Amino acid sequence: ATGIPINTCNFYHQKQRSGMLRLASFLSLLHLSYSWTAMSVSSSRTSTSMGSTNNKMIEFSKYEGLGNDFILIDNRDRETPSLTPEQSEKLCNRNFGIGGDGVIFALSPPSDDYDFSMRIYNSDGSEPEMCGNGIRCFAQFLKDLGADAKSYRVNTLAGTIIPVMNDDGTITVDMGQPELRGPKVPTTLEPNFEGDSVVEQTLECNGKTWKVSAVSMGNPHCVIFVDNLETDIDFESDGPALESCPL
Description:
- By secondary structure, this protein is mainly beta.
- It is built from three helices and 15 strands.
- It has helices at about 85-90, 130-145, 235-245, and strands at about 10, 20-30, 35-40, 40-45, 55-65, 70-75, 100-105, 115-120, 155, 160, 165, 170-175, 200-205, 210-215, 220-225.
- Strands 4-2-5-6-7-8-9-10 form an eight-stranded mixed beta sheet.
- The longest helix has 13 residues, at about 130-145.
- It is globular.
């Protein structure tokens, strides 16, 4: 199976596309005032620095899965992230930071029931329970760090997630049951289907009428089905409008 990028709003197309998981590692000087499968992996390395009067060296890696890019930090020697949500938000800035959809921390587990813990701070500083593309990147990150295993028992805010490293180099993750109850997603859209779910609900945004469905897999998704990605949606205009629309 292939995944759909984790963003505030996702557009599904009826024709599936294979996913690519790419890796690029960096070393940077940073001012601290501030059931999916990956199809293949490639890597490159570089370095960069940002001048400051109060620099701290941070080693990180940059991974991308199906268009979602993340900053990965090895915190396996501690149980809590080494950066604050505010610092992570600044690192995700694509003009003045590293750039990314979020910062993912590999942490030590709270008990022997797990191999590792994972925490994520989004690019806006918020913290989701889980991210499908993110945990696939997380699993590849662990393997690249030398923690080579067939699977990993990962403690997340959404519970135990187990990414599996397949023999062909792909990574499969069972994301569990989706949350379809509108108030639990959460969304302010009025439930219109069984189980208090929001399915094909009408939404007026950016001068257009949309039919949207709400679902959470650890973070909220607004799902819109379209027939043609080239003509039915203007990503540069409709995307930001839907992302900021009060749902």
